[in-house]
Amino acid sequence: MADTNAKLTVNGEEYELPIIKGTLGRPVIDIAALQESGFWSYDPGFKVTAPVESKITYIDGGKGELLHRGYPIDELANNAEYLEVAYALLHGDLPTAEQKEEFFEKIREHTPVHDQLRKFFEGFRRDAHPMAIMVGVVGALSAFYHEDLDVSNEEHREITAIRLIAKMPTLAAMSYKYSQGEPFMYPRNDFNYAENFLYMMFATPADVDYEKNDVITRAMDKIFTLHADHEQNASTSTVRLAGSTGANPYACIAAGIAALWGPSHGGANEAVLEMLDEIGTVENVPEFMEKVKSREVKLMGFGHRVYKNFDPRAQVMKETCDEVLEALGINDPKLELAMALEKIALEDPFFIERNLYPNVDFYSGIILKAIGIPTSMFTVIFALARTSGWISHWLEMHSAPFKIGRPRQLYTGETRRDFVKVEDRK
Ligand code: CMC
What are the sequence ranges of the domains in the chain? Predict the structure, then answer.
């Protein structure tokens, strides 16, 4: 709601810019009046720009607070299942018992993928990275759901969200099975969401006595919840930007997966394990830290654009990490190395001065390794979980009038005007 105005004077002209307050967090200055001024705003990396109004997720980076639909992330992670959180992201509040049953049933109904989709997998090299496969096959879903999909129809949008959340574990597990040369496993709808994913990843048709592990299932479900949404991050903004053109939502989610893949974003969990491989042993940590301080490398899994105190997801993840390592009795030198690195970084002035703390990906990488998930699947799991957030933002955008996202630029290129023919160019 516009409360009061900020004033901006440019070239002697004064502009009144409304200040708008949300329910929480920093108010924003509405700069639309700059349109008339002859200037654009300039904000590389969108460090101070809010391109949307949203009711889904709130982050206070200073306090280390993350709320989904108003609920603190630690309460959600410790007391609700991932699919309940997904429901809240989509619908505005946690489900009642009846709504939960109905929603879970719908998700179960849509877990299988069209059999023709197998052919897309076969087009990939055996050693293709599972994220490359995910970008391709999720994008390919748009070929299965396009002609009959009307994004202006609320029911069509709703079923799109259900399909995406339901099919992501199936596709994610298929991308792994393909890389292993193992047959795809069909979803088992007597299993819950996390159990089903683990089953499709690790069971084989010969495995008639496949046994679930409750500790691993709970940890997996928490990992899903802790990655479900994170307001206007790079991949979510990508989904919104792609969606703002009216594009097919499956293609928009594929764009989100592509944005997530980078090591500064979701690819960091994989990069943490690669970094641990590179360091090798605890004795090499001081030498590695010197490289970090001289800016040769980054300490992956540390730092965050928004959290400058602590990452609340990382706190829950650390507890889960300790539980999993203890319950599984794991004694892996790589995990010991990670813990040594964490301790040194938390005490080092370089990291303290720059407010660099372990983020969610530091611990999730360690848990995933402990439960036997191959490193190349880490970011795929992040994508699976983030799909509920991405599609919630896409739904929110489509539920009200919106404009195509089209930023401006500061042009610093050449100013040549005269075209020189190739034979006259020097
Ligand atoms: N290791 C070493 N130094 C770092 C790191 C790091 N991980 N992160 C930031 N810095 C330094 C940076 O060099 C700069 O120092 P100085 O001011 O002396 O030049 C200072 O800290 C501020 O960094 P910044 O680059 O301005 O911070 P940013 O907000 O642009 O970047 C980030 C945030 C997450 C991209 C960055 O911290 C990073 O690359 N971290 C490692 C990758 C990572 O773990 N990413 C996962 C984020 S959590 C999952 C998600 O939500 O996507």
Answer: 2-50, 69-400
